[in-house]
Specification:
The protein is α+β, with helices and mostly antiparallel strands. Helices cover about 30% and strands about 25% of the residues. It folds into 2 domains: about 140 residues, 60s Ribosomal Protein L30, Chain: A (2-Layer Sandwich); about 150 residues, PurM-like C-terminal domain (Phosphoribosyl-aminoimidazole Synthetase, Chain A, domain 2).
Length: about 350
């Protein structure tokens, strides 16, 4: 008798199994119409020639090539409160970042809450306050939503689903890296994973989640980026392999330039989890031509002093790490059991 196929927890952690599940879903849901960039962080639709929108009292005008960017995400975080944030903060920042990474100005967010019966109202108010704080700080409003309450035990505390729309004049894609480009990280990576793991297992660390919005950084350097992705589920290993595959190039990182703090490396070694699979929620990895690298780095260090060049783009395929001893190791797409319920 054939064993029944089931969805495993690994399929939600951002690695190889996630890609397999998403590919299967896409084969069944055959998307038609004028939407583009269906395998990026947001789908893109060309807009009518002229569009004017108001945000924070200012009128924004978009030209002939304006594009609507639409994204959606679901959040099941454990624990829901962690050093540096909570499920509400990550829901808002995650959706705003998905739009920003596509080069879009975020215009509005939808918010859907599924709440378990018996969930403390004090905790709900804290989560909503975090959502409102991000909304006020960024000027991106919550414009619609829905709320459901389910029986105790049907879900784990609270689940949040968000969707966002924005407008871009130039879409940043993950497949534009070219040989000769350099790879830049906007700050040290993996700190969101470290913060959640420390909270789960009661480890002592000073690291807080890197959860923050990226709109200002991308607005400042977006026109120079040849490709970019934020390393959420699956971490830098997943996004670098995606950039390499879509761009049909080889990425070579240098060990002495890796963007990981000592605590991140220590927890990676302690738990036996590859640090390259640790997610971030307020960082991005991008590629830029060598002539613009210094300019971008100067801008990014104003936002985060840990921004740095971490590697180069070459002809070939795959992602590799050049060690301090001169050896070259391949960085694979994350496989096996990763970190579930991270975002």
């Amino acid at each position: 008798m054939k064993e029944k196929e089931v969805v495993t927890i690994e399929a939600g952690a951002g690695g190889e199994k996630s890609s397999e599940l998403i590919s299967e879903i896409r084969k069944i849901l055959k998307v038609k119409g004028a939407w583009k960039n269906l395998d990026d962080d947001g789908a893109v639709l060309d807009l009518a020639p002229t569009l004017s929108l108001k945000r924070r009292g200012r009128t924004m005008k978009f030209g002939q090539m304006s594009k609507l960017v639409f994204t959606t995400d679901a959040f099941i975080v454990d624990p829901i409160f962690f050093p540096g944030g909570d499920i509400g903060k990550i829901a808002m920042t995650g959706t705003i970042n998905d739009l920003a990474m596509m080069g879009a100005k975020p215009l509005g967010i939808s918010l859907s809450l599924v709440i378990e019966e018996g969930f403390p109202k004090e905790d709900l108010r804290k989560i909503l306050s975090s959502i409102n704080k991000v909304s006020e700080e960024t000027g991106v409003p919550i414009v619609t939503g829905d709320t459901k309450v389910t029986e105790k035990g049907k879900i784990d505390k609270i689940e949040i689903t968000t969707a966002g729309i924005g407008v871009a004049e130039r879409v940043i894609e993950s497949g534009g890296a070219k040989p000769g480009d350099v790879v830049i990280a906007s700050g040290d990576l993996g700190e969101h994973a470290v913060a959640l793991l420390a909270a789960r297992f009661n480890y002592q660390t000073k690291i807080k989640s890197d959860c923050k919005t990226l709109e200002k950084e991308i607005r400042a350097v977006g026109k120079y980026l040849t490709s970019a992705k934020d390393p959420t589920r699956g971490g830098s290993a997943a996004v670098l392999n995606e950039i390499a595959e879509k761009s049909k190039v080889k990425i070579v990182l240098e060990e002495n330039k890796l963007p990981f703090k000592k605590d991140t490396i220590a927890i990676s070694e302690l738990l036996g989890i590859d640090k390259f699979s640790f997610p971030s929620e307020g960082r991005f990895v991008g590629t830029v031509s060598e002539k613009n690298a210094g300019r971008i780095l100067k801008i990014l260090t104003k936002f985060n002093k840990e921004a740095k060049i971490i590697g180069r783009i070459e002809k070939g395929k795959g992602v590799f790490l050049k060690t301090n001893l001169g050896a070259v190791k391949k960085i694979e797409v994350p496989r096996g059991k990763l970190i579930p319920r991270i975002c």
